[in-house]
Amino acid sequence: MKTKLSAKEIKKAFLATVPVMTGYLVLGIGFGIILNTKGYGVLWALAMSVFIYAGSMQFVAIDLLTGGASLIAVALTTLMVNARHLFYGISMIDKYRGAGAKKPYMIYTLTDETYSLVCNDSATRAVSDKHSYYFLVSLFDHIYWVTGSVLGSLLGSIIPFNTEGIDFALTALFITVFVEQWLDNKNHSPALIGVGASVLCLLIIGRENFLIPAMIIITVLLIVIKKKEVSTNA
Amino acid sequence: MPDLRYSAIMVAVIALVTIALRFAPFLIFGGKKETPEIITYLGKVLPYAIMGMLVVFCLKGVTPLKFPYGLPELIASAVVVGLHVWKRNTLLSIIGGTACYMVLIQLVF
Questions:
Q1: Chain A residue with minimum CA distance to B90
Q2: What whole-number distance in Å separates Cα of residue A127 and Cα of residue A10?
Q3: Would you state the pLDDT for residue A108?
Q4: For residue range A37-77, what is the model confidence (pLDDT) as tens digits?
Q5: Do B27 and B35 contact (CB within 8 A), yes or no?
Q6: Cis peptide bond upstream of B68, omega within 30
Q7: Do the Cβ atoms of B10 and A69 come within 8 Å?
Q8: Is there a contact between A148 and A25 (Cβ–Cβ < 8 Å)?
Q9: A168-184 vs B71-87: helix axis angle to the nearest 10?
Q10: Model's pTM, two decimal places?
């Protein structure tokens, strides 16, 4: 797997992932600790973080494992919790096109946070080999998550300082990318639709199940405004 | 002690469903054929909308009607936005906002 990235660009990829590192280490440690208390040791933390690699789903998985759910229930729950990944993939089809041998891994590791980094165009505009950059970002993030889970499983709750609130790093990451995209783009309708539809669904449906309805409404509205733009331009 | 064999199958099911969801769009639309125009369009505009959705998703636990009325999140988010509009340095915005949030919930609220 060749990369045409300069040392400077590799450093750029690493620096882009630092916020995710903070969040993933903390959340991963939390996951490892909880999993361990349920009787699943470090190998389980390692295997789940390598092979599932989906933060919120892994926390749900702990409940499923300990609750003795049926395999059908497990599959359906995963489908519901992770359905949003369908929408991430749609945004990356063209960007990941032609990535060759790196592509399957990049798709496999496309989490919410990695998605937010690889779709941040203003950060990647000057990068010479975008596919290598996306690949490195994906790899770094995966390593942080796995490392965090293993550490949590091994060290348990021996954390030297009060980390309460450090998971805000992930919220801050999403806000930063949102602001960056806002400043970078004149057309704010998609961003406003995203926030508006999500808030609406959150208020009506509640915090447990609002994501998928929100995504469907977002997709429909985006298609509607496209139709409108086409008809006004014609 | 949990039933390890059953647990292992469960983990495999979760992993496989997750992988299937991640690969599906690429398998359906990512072939040699031209991507349908509507998918290309959605690919361009979805990131803007979804990033807004993820922000809402992260803040979904906020309770505006109960103490602390979402103030720590509101203030820290404003710090992130302010820092970012001012310096446009992602790392600085995130570290500044997170530090602010930690101070607020550990020491103030």
A1: A176
A2: 10
A3: 97
A4: 888 999 999 999 999 999 888 988 988 898 878 898 889 88
A5: no
A6: yes
A7: yes
A8: yes
A9: 40
A10: 0.81
* Contacts with B, A 134-153, CB within 8 Å: none
d(C-alpha A83, C-alpha B22), whole Å:
9
Over range B48-68, report the average pLDDT: 87
**Which pLDDT does position B32 carry in this prediction?**
66
> Closest Cα partner for A20 from A107, A147, A157, A200?
A147
Contact indicator for A76, B13 with CB cutoff of 8 Å:
no
Length of chain A: 234
Chain B residues whose CB is inside 8 A of the A194 CB are 48-53
Check if A24 contacts B (Cβ < 8 Å).
no
CA distance readout (Å), A125 to A12, A121, A208, B36 = 12, 6, 36, 25
Amino acid letter, residue B60: K
* Inter-residue contact A96 to A118 (CB < 8 Å): no
User: Does B21 contact chain A (CB < 8 Å)?
Assistant: yes
Token pair, residue B23, equals: 């690969």
Q: Which residues contact A4 (CB under 8 A, 6 or more apart)?
A: A128, A129, A132
Q: Using an 8 Å Cβ cutoff, are B46 and A223 in contact?
A: no
Tokens encoding A152: 């949590």
Q: Does B92 touch chain A (CB under 8 A)?
A: no
Instruction: List chain A residues with CB under 8 Å of B73.
Output: 168, 171
- Is residue A6 within 8 Å of residue A130, measured between CB atoms? no
